[in-house]
Write a structure and sequence with these properties.
The chain is mainly alpha-helical and about 130 residues long. The protein has 6 helices and 2 strands, in the order ααββαααα.
Length: about 130
């Protein structure tokens, strides 16, 4: 199948598919070059890209994707190693969530303060006083 069809079946853009191919996430099992140099993708490419999307969806970096796909192809990790990787990923996401929660708290305070400056300067002053006393 051509890249546009693969893009439609996976929900990825042709640019993203070419990028993944360039980075080695797709190999000879997934893409062949025709005589006119057009790419011809196999049905296996659909499943491969769905796997990539799944792991991108849980926050995996490109380097992690390469490692995961290599392990998937070679089946080299034990179940305990996979469990350990999952636990590490959970911890990483929990750390990021805490950072985002802090950012949201700050932005919500900033919004409340700025709205108070417009509507109730005394309230704005008290918000500022409380904030600085923390």
């Amino acid at each position: 199948m051509k890249i546009q069809e693969l893009a439609e079946k996976t929900g990825l853009t042709p640019y993203t598919i070419r990028f993944y191919e360039k980075e080695g996430l797709l190999d000879h099992r997934h893409v062949q070059r025709e005589e006119n140099n057009y790419r011809n993708y196999s049905d296996e490419a659909i499943e491969r890209l769905k796997l990539v999307k799944k792991f991108k969806g849980v926050g995996c970096s490109l380097a992690e994707l390469k490692e995961i796909l290599q392990e998937h192809d070679e089946n080299t990790f034990t179940n305990l190693q996979v469990i350990d990787w999952i636990r590490q990923k959970i911890s990483e996401i929990e750390r990021k969530k805490a950072e985002y929660d802090q950012m949201l708290e700050t932005l919500n305070w900033m919004l409340e303060y700025r709205m108070a400056l417009t509507n109730d300067p005394e309230k704005a002053h008290s918000l500022l006083t409380v904030r600085h006393s923390k």
